[in-house]
Amino acid sequence: MATVDELWLEVLQRLCDATAHQFKGAMNGVAVNLEVVRSRSGRSDGDGASLRPFAEAASAEMESVIRSAEAMLSLARTPRGPADIARIARDVATLAGKGGTDGATRVTIDKSVEQLSTSTPPSAVRLAVGAVLLAAVEGSNDVVCVAVPDAPLPTIRVSQGGHDGSRFALNDEVVAAAYSAGVHLDITKTGATITFPS
Prior knowledge:
Blueprint: H1 4-41, H2 48-76, H3 85-96, E1 106-109, H4 122-138, E2 140-147, E3 155-163, H5 172-180, E4 184-188, E5 191-195
Parallel strand pairs: 1-2
Antiparallel strand pairs: 2-3, 3-5, 4-5
């Protein structure tokens, strides 16, 4: 059986794969728009205002690249201190929400998740949250992650909206590895509930 760390690396690789096409597209958008700005700015008859849309487009694409790079780096770094469930969920959502060939999936991380904390090892939190969010995105165009109110332990629910009819599924090894780290995954046909030890 694979370890939590080995399975987390597989999930991280899948997240990076899902982001690669969007990342390259955004970088190409930056390059094209900056080339237009560069070529037009050298003209003596050029109007500076006509460059604004190209500069704004390049800036927006660059912001997307920066968000993706920051999320990727945050998830790839060795964690220091306790796991931040909300931060992990936001970072995974930033990467996973960009995947898909028929457009981006909207992934919403509710503010209620900010209130949760756990002593669970960060790699186990990353594995559980990452695998569940990635699986949810693969079968839906709208995913929501919320804290479960009044749960006795830190608990989040990930649900698919805009479901494509396929059944939500997780690798049995992921479920077993998470369980071995004290994380309980309750799988439904449209998502999962993740319960962490306190």
